[in-house]
Design brief:
This protein is mainly alpha-helical. It has 2 domains: 1-42; 105-319 and 344-515, Growth Hormone, Chain: A, CATH 1.20.1250.20. Helix content is 64%, strand content 0%.
């Protein structure tokens, strides 16, 4: 009888040890700990509960905290939603949440302001970039100007590609944190805007564009912070939609802002030119010296406002929130911290394929945007042949018309993202929405898929940083290919071939969606794939 009690005592200790090991990963850790304590008390009182006994041989072997065979948790702060996600079941009363039900709206608003400032600056310069590059050397042919404009657009994202993983790893550290990375990125973007506006040569413009990209990898960090702020997966379709909405808003306001404010002395001689009300006798001297500085100064002002808002109002996520999901009903020992998994173990097959789709989509969208910004202001080609492939020249639009034309893209996309996408994502699921619906809805879908493929919360910002680097690499290659292809098309009257190449890239991206799944568990290992509640 004593040996049996001794076995029960060892069993209680073993259960307690397993509870400590599985604490960050198991939703039922408190229940098992209470069961072990009750069994131990029953042994001490001499009245063991024989119905609750379990032999050592019948106990499942302990698993390491991070292994491919363990059922992994989706990054969420709501334990009930977590359990629903693991079971892959959707409750019968599940309903799509509203924008008003989003948690921590103040923090989300600050992140939204910070995100809005960046596309506002990037899209504003695209309205006049062709003309600014032309002003560096008016003797250059249009084909060379198109190539240089593509380089200016690509070098910014190329620098982001080179530094995105570094900033993501720094954001995951307790010493550096998310907030400092955001502040450095906003300061770098502000400095880049001022320097680009004051550039008088192509080389100087390239330097400031590279500087701004190297210091800025804020999009990935913001996505990680949103994943930490939202309390459940039912909020994902709206919370992760905030950043693409900011991009579309920037596409509306940025080109209009750039087109209106570019070269103000020439466009508004009655206000800023010689003998004008503001310009005086000789006109505004710095606007004559740097004709494209004004829109960049306005962009830098938006960056400065966002920087102050982040510095004063944004909260740094606590270390326990990064290392493991929290629950008000679960007691956790503050001194026990889960180790970050090995870097090589993070890159599962699904993560890599999801990142590949995250590369092809920005490749298409960046090439399309760059091609629009170059094709619209390019001069018309006289007596060019017309056909599906064989036609030359652009549309010859001025900066103001280019800004208005490109803003229409954002005007169309914004209401669809606010009103239509959350409902479609709830009905179809994230992956099916990515496969079925167009570009406007694909961008938020890829962000959610990347977030849900993360195998461990402690590497959330790292994976988002890699995703940002991958997307930036695509955005670096896309404008370069678009500028080179348009220059080749202008020379040989085959501009239509560039647009057909973009269509092929879109088809490739659609085909890749059938190689991925939504979740963070590899198929075929005996575990369930974690689906969103809407799928």
């Amino acid at each position: 009888m004593g040996s049996r009690f001794e076995s029960r005592d060892d069993l209680a200790k073993s259960a307690s040890s397993e509870d400590e090991l599985n604490r960050p990963f198991s939703d039922g850790s408190d229940r098992r700990r209470r069961m072990s304590d009750d069994d131990h008390r029953s042994v001490q009182s001499g009245t063991p509960d024989l119905t609750g006994m379990m032999s050592e041989a019948s106990r499942p072997p302990l698993e390491p905290p991070f292994s491919p065979s363990r059922r992994r948790r989706r990054y969420s702060y709501n334990e009930e939603d977590e359990t629903t996600a693991l079971d892959g079941a959707e409750g019968p009363s599940a309903k799509p949440v509203s924008w008003r039900s989003l948690p921590k709206k103040g923090q989300l608003a600050i992140i939204t302001v910070a995100r809005l400032a960046e596309p506002l600056a990037q899209t504003s310069l695209q309205a006049y970039m062709f003309h600014q590059v032309k002003s560096f050397d008016p003797s250059l042919p249009d084909s060379t100007v198109s190539t240089q404009a593509g380089i200016l657009q690509g070098c910014f994202t190329a620098a982001q590609f080179a530094t995105g993983v570094i900033w993501g790893r720094l954001a995951d550290t307790e010493f550096f944190g998310r907030k400092r990375v955001l502040l450095i990125g906003l300061f770098g973007a502000c400095l880049s805007s001022v320097g680009f506006g004051l550039s008088k040569s192509f080389a100087a413009a390239v330097v400031f564009r590279i500087l701004g990209g190297a210091l800025n990898s804020n999009a990935g960090v913001m996505r990680a912070m949103i994943a930490e702020i939202i309390e459940g997966k039912e909020y994902q379709s709206r919370a992760f939609l905030l950043l693409p909405m900011c991009f579309n808003t920037g596409m509306i306001l940025g080109p209009i802002l750039g087109g209106i404010l570019a070269d103000p002395v020439k466009n508004y001689p009655g206000l800023f030119g010689p003998g004008s009300l503001i310009g005086g006798k000789d006109g505004v001297w710095w606007m004559k010296q740097w004709p494209y500085a004004l829109p960049n100064f306005i962009s830098a002002l938006f960056m400065l406002i966002a920087l102050v808002a982040v510095f004063l109002g944004l909260d740094e996520p606590s270390e326990p929130a990064r290392s493991a999901p929290a629950s008000p009903t679960t007691n956790r020992t503050p001194t026990i911290r889960r180790k970050r998994p090995p870097f090589r173990q993070v890159w599962t097959r699904n993560v890599l394929l999801t990142l590949l789709t995250h590369f092809v989509l920005p490749l298409h969208t960046s090439a399309f945007n760059a091609l629009c910004f170059l094709f619209l202001p390019a001069p018309r080609a006289p007596n060019s042949r017309e056909g599906l492939f064989l036609f030359g020249g652009g549309l010859g639009m001025p900066s103001s018309r280019v800004g208005l034309a490109t803003a229409i893209i954002g005007i169309i996309g914004l209401p669809f993202q606010i009103l239509v996408y959350p409902r479609w994502q709830f009905r179809l699921g994230t992956l099916r929405a990515f496969r079925v619906i167009s570009r406007t809805f694909s961008i938020p879908a890829t962000v959610i898929l990347v977030n849900n493929s993360v195998p461990d919360p402690s590497v959330l910002a790292t994976v988002h940083g890699v995703a940002q680097s991958v997307a930036c690499g695509a955005r670096a290659v896309g404008p370069l290919l678009a500028g080179w292809g348009l220059g080749l098309g202008l020379k040989n009257n085959i501009v239509g071939g560039v647009w057909w190449a973009l269509a092929l890239i879109a088809i490739l991206n659609w085909a890749l969606t059938w190689t991925i799944f939504e979740g963070n568990t590899e198929k075929g290992n005996g575990d369930k794939t974690h689906h969103s509640p809407s799928q």
